[in-house]
Amino acid sequence: MNYLPFNLETALKHPEKVRTRDGRKIDGIVHFEGLDESLNSSVVAQIDGRLITLYASGKFINYDHRNDLFLIKEVKECWVNVYDNGKLFTGAMYPTKEVAIMHGKSSYKYIKTIRITNEP
Questions:
Q1: What's the longest Cα–Cα distance across the chain?
Q2: What is the pLDDT of residues 39-80, one digit of tens each?
Q3: What's the N-to-C CA distance of the chain in angstroms?
């Protein structure tokens, strides 16, 4: 899975977007302001029913560890139709493949429907 770097502010507002390095969801996250940020105790996350302490950077320890936190990348997608009018062109963007196909098949110039996404 393609992850984004951990951002504490985003994680606190949207804990559902937080994952560990190995893909586990967290059950909750808390930041204790005023603690020494150089200690791995200013952030507490609940993972698999256990509480773990982390640095504010989302790191569990100073090297890569399965408990390091990341944000999931929000995948955005749409569907477009490809037409042939002597040269190839695309039409409007649709939220689902089914809706795009329905619109595409109403034209004799329709070739196919393709998915457009921000995933690599």
A1: 67
A2: 667 899 999 999 999 999 999 998 999 999 999 988 788 999
A3: 11
Rounded to an integer, what distance in angstroms lies between the CA atom of residue 40 and that of residue 36?
Answer: 9
Q: How far is Cα 57 from Cα 69, in angstroms, rounded to an integer? A: 8
- Domain ranges in the chain? 3-72, 77-117
pTM for this prediction: 0.64
Distance between alpha carbon 86 and the CA centroid of its chain, in Å? Answer: 39
C-alpha distances in Å from residue 95, one per residue of 12, 36, 70, 107:
30, 46, 28, 19
- Within 13 Å and on the Cβ side, how many CA atoms surround 70? 19
Bridge-based pairing of strands 28-31 and 77-84 is: unpaired
Strand order of the β-sheet with 77-84 is: 88-94, 77-84, 110-117
